[in-house]
Amino acid sequence: AAGSCRRRRLAPLNEDNGRFLLLAALIAAYLSAGATVFSALESPSEAEAQLRWNRTLHNFSRIFNISLPELRAFLRSYEAAMAAGIRVDALRPRWDFPGAFYFVGTVVSTIGFGMTTPATVAGKVFLIVYGLFGCAGTILFFNLFLERIISLLAFIMKACHERQLRRSGLLPPNFRRGPAMSGVGSLVGWKPSVYHVLLILGIFAIALSCCASAMYTAVEGWNYVDSLYYCFVTFSTIGFGDLVSSQNAAYQNQGLYRFGNFVFIFMGVCCIYSLFNVISIVIKQVLNWVLKKFKCRCCPKCHKSSTRLSRRNAITPGARLRRHNISVDTDGQYDSDTEGRRLSGEMISMRELTASNKVSLAILQKQLSETANGYPRNVCINTRQNGFSAGVGALAIMNNRLAETSDSR
User: Fold this and answer.
1) Which of 63, 190, 236, 278 has CA 20 to 30 A from 249's CA?
2) Predicted confidence (pLDDT) at residue 38 exceeds the cutoff of 50
3) How far apart are CA 200 and CA 160, in angstroms?
């Protein structure tokens, strides 16, 4: 058993790699399950539509005495015209300034409806350069929007919590935020819950989608379910392009509708992007919980003898320095059994292990707490730093934001 545990310790599959592989396996299973469901739902309808189309095609060829090869050649020309943006009914110009602005908006936001595409070589080359910087800048904007929406929610939740404490008599009526709050015990340990942020963002996204769907139902003539479907596909930047708003030649109150369409898409994309990032933290916590269940059960037994020997041995020259550099819990509390007296060669404490498993959730909670309380908390986390230690993407920007300890923030 000791040999097997030693081989496991030497294996390169650490917690980060295990989380990555577990997530990859779950995504593969999720994709397979989704493909199975959609295949069962949509395949019969597709087969039936194909049969109806073949029947219609043969009847048309027989009634009007047109050969099938000629009829198919005409239909191919019609499909090419549709790809170029030509329709039987009159549509708005695709490449006037409002149409082009709508197009670049779908490009930089990565929605990519596909109803408008460059036809010239110069346009395609310019799109590559334009999209490279435009998409990067827009993603950065979404990340900064995420930080500020979390800060706003933290201040609102903090104000509601203080109001509740005043009503219950736990806070003096003349209480002010600032350094004086450190003496109020009921506020020192309070943290806005990340799940409350998730709930608020979810409610706001649903309300925004419902309002936008009502507008699209009234103006575009879609049914309400199709409008909700369009809102999710657009706000999540999936952008299938089967339903696209503001494409008719004319609308009643056209200028007002275009402005409302832009505002709804802009706010919807920002809100759904923030919601996705908060959900990703919860998913990561689930992965950490699953990994914790798969941890080696025999490793503590294997290290028990070496742990006892290390406690009996004399302290090595670097032990005192290591003892002071050992990581501290996020709230500044020490483990009474191990913190402050850990010797060389000992295992890490369960508090450190739990804190490392919950670092993503603690990071967002700390952002909420620091922003709501109006001052940063000093946190000492002893980790190996490298170029990617804080991760990449929106969570990395949040981590860097939370790591700031300057008084100017």
Assistant:
1) 236
2) yes
3) 14
Residue bearing tokens 């050969």: 67
Decide if pLDDT at 326 tops 70. Answer: no
Q: ∠ CA 398-206-99 to the nearest 5 degrees? A: 85
Kindly report whether the global pTM for this prediction surpasses the value 0.70.
no
Alpha carbon distance 228, 270 (integer Å): 17
CA dist., res. 135 & res. 112, Å (int)? 11
- Backbone φ and ψ for 129, nearest 5 degrees, come out as -70, -45
The SS3 of residue 241 is: coil
pLDDT digits (tens, 9 = 90+) for 205-253: 999 999 999 999 999 999 999 999 999 999 999 999 989 998 888 888 8
Tokens of 207: 């309300």
User: What is the reported pLDDT for 191?
Assistant: 66
Cα 293 → chain centroid: 25
Confidence label for 370 from pLDDT (cuts 50, 70 and 90) = low
Dihedrals phi, psi of 91, to nearest 5 degrees: -120, 165
Main-chain phi, psi angles of 95, to 5 degrees? -120, 20
Residues 6+ apart with CB under 8 A from 231: 208, 209, 212, 213, 216, 264, 268
Measured between alpha carbons, how far is 174 from 220 in angstroms, rounded to an integer?
54
Structure tokens at 71: 């009829």
Find how far residue 25's CA is from the centre of its chain: 19
* Cα Rg, the chain, nearest whole Å: 29
